[in-house]
Design brief:
33% of the residues lie in helices and 0% in strands. It has helices at 9-13, 64-87. The chain contains two helices and no strands. It is elongated, with a radius of gyration of 26 Å.
């Protein structure tokens, strides 16, 4: 055993990755600074898409325009149902 004392306090107190590993548990590696995952699970510097990346958009289902359009359709259907109930 070595005679010098190791300073492991900061390492043990650092936040952990928490990514799911193959055995079903959580990864216990420390996170990369300013990220939420370790270097092996996507926390490496320059990894992932940049903020506001237009190329990462898959579809327009949840754009503000599409949501507003669905609300209008829902309101119109509600009014039509009320009108049908009144005519009965």
């Amino acid at each position: 055993m070595s005679a010098h004392a190791r300073n492991t306090g900061p390492m043990l107190a650092s936040p952990r990755c928490g990514a799911k590993i193959r055995s079903g548990g959580s990864c216990r590696s420390p996170v990369v600074r300013s990220k939420r995952r370790c270097r092996m699970h996507g926390g490496a510097l320059e990894s992932g898409a940049p903020k506001g990346n237009q190329n990462a958009r898959k579809h327009g289902l949840f754009t503000q325009h599409a949501i507003a359009q669905r609300r209008q359709i829902r309101a119109l259907l509600g009014e039509a149902r009320k009108l049908l109930q009144e005519l009965k």
